[in-house]
């Protein structure tokens, strides 16, 4: 329960590169973020505004993603969504960055900031480390 209440802080720490093994809370949140359902939820949150457009029925409560900005950045959006859903191991840093992008209603997905950079950075971070969290070595 505490992990749910501290989700924002935990995602912030993981997106900044905190070791998920540093605490039980970070470890639990990392497991949640790496789960297939959470990965699919994040990808759908990014893609739905572009696919659904204005076709949804009742207006939602709260801010909505900037559909026009998402459409302008399809070349970054699509690879991120595909990578989240491909079932391969991911680095928790990248998925935590994506979670922050989706949940920060004052950030680039909803209001202000460089959405292209946020999408690209999150996508690239998904492959920075092996699934166990260790940094990859250059070949």
Verbal overview:
With 139 residues, the chain is mainly α. It has eight helices and no strands. Helix 3 packs across helix 7. The protein is globular and about 40 Å long.
Could you give a short description of this structure?
The chain has 139 residues and is an all-alpha fold. 59% of the residues lie in helices and 0% in strands. The model is unreliable at 133-139 (pLDDT under 50).
Gap between N and C termini: 42 Å
- Please compute the radius of gyration using only Cα atoms: 15 Å
Give the biggest sheet: none
Topology order in helix (H) and strand (E) letters = HHHHHHHH
- pLDDT < 50 stretches: 133-139
Tally the helices. Answer: 8
SSE topology:
Elements: H1 2-5, H2 7-15, H3 24-34, H4 36-52, H5 67-72, H6 74-85, H7 92-103, H8 115-125
Record keyword descriptors for this entry.
139 residues; mainly alpha
